Amino acid sequence: MDVPSLVVILQAALSPNPAERKAAEESLNKFQHTPQHLVRLLQIVVDNNCPLAVRQVASIQFKNFIAKNWAPLDHNEPQKILLSDKDVVRDHILVFVAQVPPLLRVQLGECLKTIIHADYPEQWPLLLDWVKHNLQDQQVYGALFVLQILARKYEFKLDEERTPVHRIVEETFPQLLIIFNRLVQIEKPAVEVADLIKLICKIFWSSIYLEIPKQLLDPNAFSAWMMLFLNVLERSVPLEGQPMDPELRKSWGWWKVKKWIVHILNRLYTRFGDLKLRNPENRAFAQMFQKNYAGKILECHLNLLGVIRVGGYLPDRVTNLILQYLSNSISKNSMYTLLQPQLDVLLFEIVFPLMCFNDNDQKLWEEDPHEYVRKGYDIIEDLYSPRTASMDFINELVRKRGKENLQKFIQFIVEIFKRYNEAPLEYKPYRQKDGALLAVGALCDKLKQAEPYKSELEHMLTQHVFPEFRSPVGHLRAKAAWVAGQYANVNFSDKNNFLQALHCVISGLRDPELPVRVDSVFALRSFVEACKDLNDIRAILPQLLDDIFKLMNEIENEDLVFTLETIIDKFGEEMAPYALGLCQNLAAAFWRCMNTAEVDDEADDPGALAAVGCLRAVSTILESVSGLPHLFVQVEPTLLPIMQRMLTTDGQEVFEEVLEIVSYMTFFTPTISLDMWSLWPLMIEALADWAIDFFPNILVPLDNYVSRGTAHFLACKEPDYQHSLWNMISSIMADKNLEDNDIEPAPKLIEVVFQNCRGQVDHWVEPYLRITLDRLNQTEKSRLKCLFIKVIANAVYYNAALTLGILNKFAFMTEVFNLWFQLLQQVRKSGVRANFKREQDKKVCCLGLTTLLALPGEQISGEALGRVFRAALDLLVAYKDQVAEAAKEEEVEDDDDMDGFQTDDDEDASDKEMGVDTEDEDEADSLRLQKLAAQAKAFRGNDDDDDEYDSDDDSSDDEEMQSPIDDVDPFIFFVDTVKALQASDPMKFQGLMQTLDPHYQALANGVAQHAEQRSEIEKEKMEKAYAAAAAPS
């Protein structure tokens, strides 16, 4: 397609007629891969005779095609751009990037970024030469523009990846200095000069972000740069040409230059100017920076802040950065000495006024209260907020230099409170009171700890904070709620004061002003957490929940959901009557948040964050009513559409939260419904397509489906869940590109099948063992080897004769058992067992080894039998000791401090059978709940590369699994198997006993006695249970 024809199609893409637009888009898609198509698009972008709208469409097409096809993520994918076309694009984009209008330059800049990241330096070695050449002629802007993109490529690179930076700095920085110097000397410079200086600053920023290039460690070279930075920083910004609109003004070129210079100086100061640095080279630089520049920068910064004091303009971001520099100076003695003479002026005439409610706040409060709330709760806004930086400065000041400043500052706040109380209604300094309350709230941690302030807090709250709940001024009512929340956990000597504040906060939920309602909900969370007597809230709980949901209908804010979660968590099963309504409201709120997030298309959008919060709150509800299975049936229709939609690519941002809900819904519901089974294919598909990182999370519901819906899993053929699981596991186990950590859930799922489908999946034993042995041969890590050996142990326990036959068929019998015994015998330097450290590991191995003892003589030799017998005895003794140790630890811990790390169901049984105090049924239910919650977290896997099978920080994952073997006592199983062997083959039994040395004979006798004790305890327990069931109600 020639250029004129392409222009016609691009014009059609702008047509108001949908049919014409669609036809144009189809044509563009059809021809996009033809030779020279990319070159023709670029020709149109740079053609000044073409309409700007057409050039813009061409630039977007050009950018999107390059982003997708210049360097495909899949290296095996065939190249869709001819090398000759790439050469033409590289040569011409450099020439025109500075000549096109800014609207198009943005798109070409993105293209350059993609090309430079992919091609420099290997495929584009002459790029830096082009930059050097053009820095010396009339193409300075284009050269700086390209150099900034090039420098940014290495901004976050470390070590050898950063090597190209040294050449960039060496070959361009001398010329940059010359250009910078020339620009600074221009009298009455135009704003275009600011654009050039800004590019130089951004190049410098990227080059020093993680490491000072060695060329700049030279004091003379560094000094030349610093003199220019300080020169520009000290200069007044030209008044001529400054936009009056606040949004345009802060983005004006000269203010942007100020921001970048302050940014650079902060970075140099905080990362490289600290004398505590251990690197000797950096320490020398830090000493030089502290001695020659830190004080000068401080002086410049204080002069800049002085503009605020007299009502002048300073952009919020610049103010924020300067205050960060001052905060970092407080702890350094030499800098604090320089700061001290001006500290009072800084504190009381600049920093405190920045904390006060101002005209911009008032305008936003009145015109867009939703935006006011969003800005107040947005972490990103804090990066730009002078108010946040002021609070941080005061906190740092009283933390590091509190002795000479805290009393002085509090006295200042007290004077404001006093003036406010004494002033007539129409002259009260409302905004100063707002700032004083903000200061009191910001200093809460310090004031709660330090006397005499700690003793006066209750008085301060009742005299100066709580009365503002009734203020005629909305922002003071909001601030009163926020401050009250900060101090909700102090020990009130008069409980009525706590209740007064609580009721005021609850009343604030119905305030006519939206920001007051939001701050009240935020404060309510602290009061609920601090509340010692839930009766204070219980009576109004329905109204409270109603108010929160009304507010959630108005605004998307994750802090609202946090408060709801706190209430649900605090009241536990008492939330049962509200569970369905809560889930319905949260589901509705979730869909609203998702719709907002889709429109805004920003990852940090408050709607997206609130959507995650809604799902977390649903999980909290399900956890709180876990002992009421019928409720899960009621909430399923409400939650099912969310699970169905969000288990696809639409739900990638909330996938983990949705999987947690699926885990609860498949674990606690009486039976897994067919609708819930419809989620299985979605999870399998996601896992195959994009969700391998979530495999540990997906493991939990898949385990629940197999273990709690075993009959359906085995019987259903449309879809065939057995084949579905096999296809997924075999594909993952065979994928050599996957790391060992990625595939760990796969052998765990094979275990789940063997344990839950005993005697019903004989035809799957051989395929699963084959892929297990194949991957076992490839892996080097003990951790994964142990997981594969556990699969074999489970297969032996499932059907020993079948498993040994398969191992013999594959000629793997000797190799597998040698590895098994080798792993069992490995110890660390400390003498503790290196592998199979968890109770569940030992139990699985015990059951597998014990099952081998029952095989006929022709299937297992006498020598092998003795080896198996001794290994089983060692494991049983180790298991017994571990259970006893876990029981002791539980006695020491608080009753309610159970995080599921020490016990699982078989341990509970072991504890009881060994005479350890048993827990009542409620606690057992609670423990099962803890286990499910821990499953969702524990199976997220280990990111470390430790070669050891077990590490202290992931000791919970397998312990949280529940399976049929939980009910099998390994001691009784062992003794019963040995007795059966003695009865069926006395000679074999006698031969086995004769191979045991005195040590193992003693162990065997001890295990037999222990099994008898456990058997007696189990018998008594069953008799009590039978008697309780038979007793009249």
Description:
Helix 11 (219-234) runs parallel beside helix 14 and helix 43 packs across helix 45. The chain has 53 helices and no strands. The N and C termini lie far apart (89 Å). Among the domains are: 341-513; 766-885 and 962-1032, no CATH class. It is globular. It is 72% helix and 0% strand. It is mainly α.
Number of helices: 53
Proportion in helices: over 70%
Q: Which runs of at least 5 residues are low in confidence (pLDDT < 50)?
A: 894-959
Radius of gyration: 35 Å
The main pleated sheet reads as:
none
Structural class: mainly alpha
Q: What is the mean pLDDT?
A: 88
The overall strand count is 0
* Proportion of beta-strand residues: under 5%
- Kindly, what is the distance between the CA atoms of the first and last residues, rounded to a whole number of angstroms? 89 Å
Shape: globular
Protein name: Importin beta-like SAD2
Pfam families: Cse1, IBN_N, TPR_IPO11
Region (Disordered): 887-967
Biased composition (Low complexity): 929-938
